[in-house]
Recover the amino acids of this structure.
């Protein structure tokens, strides 16, 4: 499970009122931690447990974690407050069901209100977010699939569970999503949509420049920053094209995902899409050099006869430079400047050569910043005004949101 550090990130969650429904699945033990996480990000959380959830976890745990009385069936017909089923849905900014059992999903799809939580769902005026978790065979069951489709058509959001080993000993799709994916979904639901109707192109990851069929030159980019930018742009309402070099990550849900390998392929993909974009964010670590020659067969060690090997490299096309020379003035162009020292000075120098609207500069040698980690520490420099904003160390998802909010300021 990926922790977001430090507590206090999780942009969009602080101050929000979240009704947190817990149903009777084994993943309810994880829900306790997720509830704690929302509280840690500054949300007000009001938990509601079904009677079957109480067989797995107690309301005491959820009351202690949320700091408020966790409601259960015992509160449903409380003469002291007979209107929990109306008051709490009215109070909530967001209604979350985590985990959502097959049973609860079925009841919600059918509009049944035979306990406190299902009654609250009918009394809630917005769309709720369901986090299903169940055995893989249950999740694949056509009745469950149909019920999930019905929930979506009713305006609810259903976050697909993950694949992997489950408590029942089987493998399959049905695991409750990770804490990170949970927080992503909550943020997406709560965040404003300043990029609605805007089109954003994002490049991500490294490129691979082949030497022969088995070897290549690449770099340490993991693609995390670019993928978080794609998620953040979607969450703020944009339609997103993500052009990515090879990574180990599963792509976020975007409007178009283009998988490329070399710098040249990335350039071609960018060329194809760039004219219809409102914003282009170049987060990829594109190779500056590529082998002059690509061998058709694997180069054998014996072939160099102990003499060492000199590779002849040629420069690739600078994609950011190409975009800047072929841009429309209405577009917002965002560049990245990975530095190992003199951060602001070097980034300002780069802006002179490459007049982007926003430059995201980071010192990749600092702990918690740069390649392959979940956090980043960046300085944002506005191209026109040279206004500088140094952000603290943050989860890359939150860095991405800060960048996209700046994009929205430039575009709107
Ligand atoms: C040990 C155990 C684990 C269970 N895990 C799940 C689960 O992960 N997902 C699910 O949909 N049902 C699971 N069930 C079945 C539900 O508990 C059952 O359908 C119950 O009626 C759900 O009640 P609720 O939806 O009102 O909370 C499990 C049952 C047992 C005994």
């Amino acid at each position: 499970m990926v922790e977001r550090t430090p507590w206090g990130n999780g942009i969009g969650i602080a101050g929000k009122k979240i009704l947190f429904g817990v149903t009777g699945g084994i993943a309810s033990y994880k829900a306790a931690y997720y509830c704690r996480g929302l509280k840690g990000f500054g949300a007000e959380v009001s938990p509601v447990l079904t009677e079957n959830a109480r067989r797995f976890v107690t309301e005491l745990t959820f009351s202690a974690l949320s700091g408020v009385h966790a409601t259960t069936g015992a509160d449903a017909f409380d003469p002291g407050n007979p209107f929990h089923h109306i008051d709490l849905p009215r109070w909530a900014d967001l209604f979350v069901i985590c985990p959502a059992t097959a049973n609860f999903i079925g009841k919600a799809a059918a509009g049944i209100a035979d306990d406190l939580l299902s009654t609250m769902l009918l009394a809630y005026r917005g769309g709720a977010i369901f986090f299903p978790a169940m055995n893989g065979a249950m999740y694949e069951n056509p009745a469950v699939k149909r019920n999930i489709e019905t929930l979506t058509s009713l305006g609810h959001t259903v976050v697909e569970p993950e694949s992997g080993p489950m408590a029942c000993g089987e493998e399959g799709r049905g695991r409750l999503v990770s804490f990170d994916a949970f927080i992503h979904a909550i943020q997406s639901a709560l965040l404003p949509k300043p990029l609605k109707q805007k089109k954003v192109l994002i490049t991500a990851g490294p490129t691979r420049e082949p030497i022969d069929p088995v070897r290549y030159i690449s770099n340490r980019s993991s693609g995390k920053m670019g993928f978080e930018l794609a998620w953040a742009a979607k969450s703020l309402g944009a339609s997103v094209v993500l052009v990515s070099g090879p990574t180990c990550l599963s792509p976020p849900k975007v409007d178009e995902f283009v998988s490329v390998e070399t710098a040249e392929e990335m350039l071609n993909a960018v060329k194809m899409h760039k004219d219809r974009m409102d914003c282009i964010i170049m987060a990829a670590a594109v190779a500056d050099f590529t082998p002059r020659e690509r061998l058709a067969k694997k180069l054998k060690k014996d072939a160099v006869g102990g003499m060492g090997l000199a590779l002849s490299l040629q420069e690739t096309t600078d994609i950011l430079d190409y975009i800047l020379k072929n841009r429309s003035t209405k577009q917002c162009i965002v560049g990245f400047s990975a530095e190992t020292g003199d951060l602001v000075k070097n980034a300002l120098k780069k802006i002179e050569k490459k007049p982007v609207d926003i430059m995201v500069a980071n010192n990749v040698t600092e702990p918690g910043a740069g390649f392959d980690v979940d956090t980043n520490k960046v300085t944002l420099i506005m191209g026109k005004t040279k206004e500088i904003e140094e952000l603290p160390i943050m989860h890359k998802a939150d860095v991405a949101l800060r960048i996209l909010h700046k994009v929205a300021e430039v575009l709107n």
About this structure: The CA atoms of residues 30 and 195 lie 33 Å apart.
